Amino acid sequence: MDFSYWGSICLAVFITLWLTDRRRFLNGYFLIAGLLCFVVAVWQWLEITQAPWMQALLLVVSLALTGIIPVALALFALACVLYSHRLIRHAGSNPGYVLLEMVGFIIWGMLLLTLLNSLLFHSQFIWLILGLLFIWIGYFMIGFLSYGLASLLDELPILYSVDFIVILGAGLLADGTVSKILQRRLDKGIAIYQQQLKRGAHPQFVVSGGQGADEIMPESQAMRNYLEKKGIASTQIIQESTSTSTYENLRFSEIIMTKIKIFHRAIFVTNSFHVFRAGVIAKRLNTTMSGVSASTSMNYLPFAAFREYLALFMMFKWINAIILGGITVVYLIYGLFIY
């Protein structure tokens, strides 16, 4: 099989999909598939090379991968357990968070059972079950990688003029000032605003966020205060003060912008871990809004990324269930009746 050909096809599809709409979950999958195909193609090319040093290099790489993959899985399992506990402490018990912890313990159990079956049991049935479990874990990890790549692609700059810059709300501090996460969103929005002025555009800010039970004012009011302190004219700021979720942030903001200008071009600003899921929601609302990433501190990013991917996984739970069910049926038919 010519993997370079299929890699080129996958990358071409990825580029087409991303240029037409960067909010598709499939974008990351096609990028991963294309890169993997090229890796396999290079590996095949190296294998047919007769040079002794090349054969030795391939052997070393094969042995290294044999050792690295189990270690990587064990570390991934540890991350699942640690971050599920942190998620539960931060946001309370949630089926998705419990599922994440279960994934971690299952991976550890799989690695232990693989070792025991290799040394003691030598059971074909155990190999069959382990193979299925590894496929499920691989599906979860590829999805997480796809989410990560799609989020990174939203780091690219906006090269066109916009009418509105929507800032999605986040929590406030006890004194009513913006949190560090929200400050980064606002600072990114200001940077984009300044870039737009240089292009000759004069976009308005839409600050979106209601008042939480533990907040002394609506998030939108705190955001307005911050922007005005940074020199943004009050006439350039529009408040949306009733939303309580990302879905409502985007929906209510879109309604406001449409009333002001029916045919408009808008972007929303949120943190890097959140931008892709917010984009998916914007797409479901039939808006044309694309997201722009604000930076996130590295000590918070893994925790937030796990939470976001779980939310994405649950958004597409029925699609994921159908795909995993189909993979399971095909695998079991092959393992029980063909292999």
What does this structure look like?
The protein is of the alpha/beta class. The protein has 3 domains: 1-48; 67-153 and 298-339, no CATH class; 164-296, Rossmann fold. The chain is built from 11 helices and 5 strands, in the order αααααβαβαβαβαβαα. It has a 5-stranded parallel beta sheet, sandwiched between helices. α5 packs antiparallel against α11 (317-338).
Measured distance between first and last alpha carbons? 21 Å
Q: Report the top-level CATH class of the largest domain.
A: Alpha Beta
Overall helicity? 55-70%
Structural class of the secondary structure composition?
Answer: alpha/beta
Query: How many structural domains in the coordinates?
Result: 3
Pfam family, one: DUF218
GO biological process, one term: Gram-negative-bacterium-type cell wall biogenesis
Keywords: Membrane, Transmembrane, Transmembrane helix
InterPro entries: Cell_Envelope_Assoc, DUF218, Rossmann-like_a/b/a_fold
Which tags fit this structure?
alpha/beta; Rossmann fold; 3 domains; 5 strands; Cell_Envelope_Assoc; transmembrane
How is this structure best summarized?
By secondary structure, the protein is an alpha/beta fold. It has helices at 3-20, 26-47, 52-91, 95-121, 124-153, 180-198, 219-229, 246-260, 275-284, 301-315, 317-338, and strands spanning 164-168, 204-208, 237-240, 266-271, 290-294. Helix 6 links the parallel strand 1 and strand 2.
Give the helices and strands, then pairings.
Elements: H1 3-20, H2 26-47, H3 52-91, H4 95-121, H5 124-153, E1 164-168, H6 180-198, E2 204-208, H7 219-229, E3 237-240, H8 246-260, E4 266-271, H9 275-284, E5 290-294, H10 301-315, H11 317-338
Parallel strand pairs: 1-2, 1-4, 2-3, 4-5
